[in-house]
Design brief:
mainly alpha, Serine Threonine Protein Phosphatase 5, Tetratricopeptide repeat, two-stranded antiparallel sheet, about 5% strand
């Protein structure tokens, strides 16, 4: 009798294994990003219907999407994801079957109460139905389930802001951005909040991050943050003495290399201007703007050697024409080292023609105060 016990145990174990296997849902192994993951078997009909539902939802056909999601639940009734999307489709403001949405969301929660997208969609649904407090609670729970989910954090911050809890919204976004500095949605939300609260520094900080992460937004942001304009970025880099950054910004602003050297002189950055001018003249000795920049920068640095190099032009060499700003820079040099009348004549209309460029205007007004305009030369008022 004892001899048969091991065999009986083995048979019993096999029987239990077979019985449990027959009762359990079949398992499949899928590969995500090269990693095998074991999960439930899902019929292809469910995949097909769900995919069509997502396409319809993306294109704004929410009733069509709901029909596809309903079909998908017939083939995969245990999917929290399908029931969540179905509830979201029912809750669309253009349709708003709120009771059906509630049923779908409740069923999804019974399947998996830890599924963050479910509570995010419940928050959106409650907000669209003007149930702000419910929306806040659902969004808060979504963030608790997944504090790093970008959309959930942005949604919760937006709801906090609209509830007048701006300090909480700011802290939430700041904390999120510390962990996720490349979050475009997070920076956009932080920018919008700073704009509402009239916080110029935070607007600038957020806008600068957005321009780096999503350059397509630059044109929209420049109106509120003028320092983001391409030309302003050139000037900021010059003021910081960062020639590499200035060159990159100049390319974005479509400023020629020689004109960058001129602009650096006008901004009071002679060392940077001299380096840029030498760089340009090494490739194009006929650049009039680069020679003007080198001469003026060298004068400011008391560098006689470079002044001489800038003014030495081969008799057969024809220099390129000067921009209005370059004419002002050289006229300023003439006014300092030669003759005011010569400076006035050389500047010509550049000293009286106004522009929208703050650097040009600052130098023009400075020079106008020093030597007067063309009318002064002719005795006019």
């Amino acid at each position: 009798m004892n001899r048969h016990r091991p065999a009986m145990r083995a048979i019993l174990a096999l029987t239990l294994s077979l019985g449990l296997g027959a009762c359990a849902d079949p398992q499949v192994v899928r590969v995500y990003n090269g990693n095998p993951v074991t999960g439930r078997f899902i019929r292809y009909e469910a995949y097909a219907a769900y995919g069509r539902g997502l396409e319809a939802e993306r294109d704004g056909y929410f009733r069509v999407a709901a029909r596809w999601f309903e079909e998908a639940t017939q083939y995969d009734p245990e999917s929290v994801e399908i029931w969540t999307r179905l509830g979201a489709a029912y809750c669309n403001p253009g349709w708003r079957r709120l009771n059906d949405a509630y049923v779908a969301f409740t069923h999804a929660e019974q399947l998996d109460a830890t599924y963050e997208p479910l509570f995010r969609e419940r928050a959106r649904c409650a907000r669209s139905a003007s149930r702000e407090q419910d929306a806040l609670e659902f969004a808060k729970h979504a963030v608790q389930l997944d504090p790093d989910q970008d959309e959930a954090v942005v949604l919760y911050a937006d709801l906090l802001q609209k509830a007048g809890k701006t300090d909480e919204a700011a802290k939430l976004l700041d904390s999120h951005l510390l962990r996720h500095p490349n979050s475009v949605g997070g920076w956009q939300a932080r920018y919008d909040l700073a704009k509402q609260l009239k916080q110029p520094f935070e607007m600038k900080r957020s806008a600068e991050a957005l321009v780096k992460l999503a350059p397509r937004l630059a044109d929209k942001l420049v109106a509120d943050v003028p320092t983001l304009a391409p030309l302003a970025q050139v000037d900021e880099a010059v003021r910081q003495g960062n020639l590499d950054a200035a060159r990159k910004a100049a390319r974005r602003a479509h400023i020629p290399p020689a004109e960058l050297a001129v602009r650096a002189v006008a901004l009071g950055a002679p060392k940077l201007a001299l380096e840029q001018a030498e760089h340009v003249l090494g490739a194009d000795p006929s650049s009039g703007a680069a020679r003007v920049a080198m001469a003026s920068a060298s004068d400011a640095l008391a560098d006689a050697q470079h002044i001489t190099a800038a003014l030495e032009v081969h008799p057969d060499e024809r220099l390129t024409q000067l921009s209005p700003l370059a004419r002002l820079v050289y006229a300023d040099l003439l006014a300092r080292r030669a003759d005011r009348e010569a400076a006035r004549v050389f500047a010509g209309s550049s000293i009286t023609d106004k522009t929208n460029d703050p650097v040009h205007e600052a130098l023009r007004l400075h020079l106008l105060g020093r030597i007067g305009g063309t009318n002064a030369a002719s005795g006019g008022t």
